[in-house]
Amino acid sequence: MRKKEKILIILGIIFISFNLRAPITAVGSVVNLISEEFDLTTGMAGFITTLPLVAFAVVSPFVSNISKKLGYGKTMLFGLIIIMLGEIVRSYTGVSGLFIGTALLGIGIAIGNVLIPSIIKLKFGKNIGKMISVYTSSMCIFAAVGAGVSMPLAKGFNLGWKNALAVWFMLTLFTLVIWTPQLKKEKTDERKDTVLTSASTSSTSIWTSKTAWSVTIFMGIQSLLFYSMVAWLPTIILSKGMDHSFASNMALTYQLVAIPATLLIPVLCDKFKNQKGLVMATCSTYLIGMLLFLIGTSPFVLVLSVLLMSLGMGGSISLSIAFISLRSPNPQKASELSGMSQSAGYLLAAIGPTLMGTIYDFTYSWSVPIMIFIGLIILLSFIGLQAGNDITVKE
Q: 76 to each of 10, 20, 183, 363, 390, how far by Cα in Å?
């Protein structure tokens, strides 16, 4: 790969990753404003975060075949256009548009979710860990920005929640421009792109692999935890007697402190024969943080709990993405495993935000959802030990 081509694809991956979480995490800080305007129940408000996950689950299995026909460059461009459309529809077309636009966002983001890990496997086979580090860190940086700026934009700058969420349109538009050079592929790159997404030559179905299922369930549980916390972290902190400013800062902290873990964990993955030790370190940190979050009522304990949960969250996200490439023998299988893990995995994750909101509607307490999170982190550690084995899925 020529230096200019390498720089362009790296920039493309970075800017696409900026768009894969921020439009979703931006909702958490202003969900109360949305609920007040449209008179939504807690369960309905949680469904705003659930909808993209449903879209991930439904769309992910089809991305490889679409990319096989169009090429990854055009397919990704198509995804970015859908994200832009979703951002406008979500903000400015009423309560029905709120949900329709959110679903469109999920469809566009699903395309990036599936293609980026397999593109990394294809383009950076010798530096997978470093590129996954760049990818996941970029996601977390802008996930943090999304969580942190929504309330200041809505309240501090008097933009209202609609304009505060719609500002992400400009980032997506700029990303589309950054990605455009990928449409001008050479013939050799087109042949590689076919290898990236072609599943027809596989002799073994990815869905029959125990290793693939371990990766998929790990993806699903960590995603359920992540999106549930994104949806309800500010609300839970408010329920503990803190003010909106503190809750918004904790939402930002939850995203921001994850960045060191997303930088370090993928690089360490390349240095160990298996990732079992990394799984246990990540899950233990996550678990201690969640236990403190359950019992915490003071600002100090809540800050400490959010810091630990954030490191655990960042590590688990990085591991889930790294497992896709590390457990795949080639780019073709990486594409299949990416589609499987993000389809079945996000279908599991989609349960989280709405279920937790509904549980609160019945119990009027956030303690039960947090105790469920604790159980899921314990399960995550056991599944991670299986996914962390030095075994690849069969070709």
A: 14, 12, 10, 43, 31
User: Number of structural domains, the chain?
Assistant: 1
Taking only the tens place, the pLDDT of each residue in 168-193 is 999 999 999 999 998 876 445 555 54
User: What residue spans of 152-243 are helical by DSSP H?
Assistant: 160-166, 168-179, 187-197, 210-239
* Cα(363)–Cα(359) distance, integer angstroms: 6
What amino acid is encoded at 207 in this protein? W
How many residues in total does the chain contain?
A: 395
> According to the model, what pLDDT value does residue 395 have?
62
Cα-based angle 74, 93, 359 (whole degrees, multiple of 5): 95
HSE-up (13 A, CA, CB side) for residue 322: 38
Q: 365: number of CA atoms within 13 Å, CB side?
A: 8
Count the neighbouring beta carbons within 10 Å of the beta carbon of residue 350. Answer: 26
Residue 393 belongs to a domain: no
Q: Which residues of 288-301 are buried (b: 16+ CB within 10 A; e: fewer)?
A: bbbbbbeebeeeee
Domain that holds residue 304: 3-387
| 81 within a domain of the structure (yes/no) | yes
Tell me which of 19-28, 64-73, 297-306, 309-318 is least confident.
Answer: 64-73
Q: How many Å apart are CA 348 and CA 53, to the nearest integer? A: 9
The values of phi and psi at residue 180, to 5°, are -50, -40
- Residue type (1 letter), 331: P
Question: Which tokens sit at 23?
Answer: 């439009």
CA-angle at 49, arms to 303 and 216, nearest 5°: 90
Q: Identify whether 394 is part of a domain.
A: no
Higher pLDDT, 81 or 60: 81
Q: pLDDT (tens digit, 9 = 90+) per residue, 118-142? A: 888 888 877 888 899 999 889 888 8
Q: Is residue 13 part of a domain?
A: yes
C-alpha closest to that of 253 among 306, 301, 202: 306
Q: What is the mean pLDDT of the chain?
A: 89
Q: Domain of 299: which CATH number?
A: 1.20.1250.20
CB 217 within 8 A of CB 383: yes
pLDDT at 331 over 50: yes
pTM exceeding the 0.85 threshold for the entire prediction? no
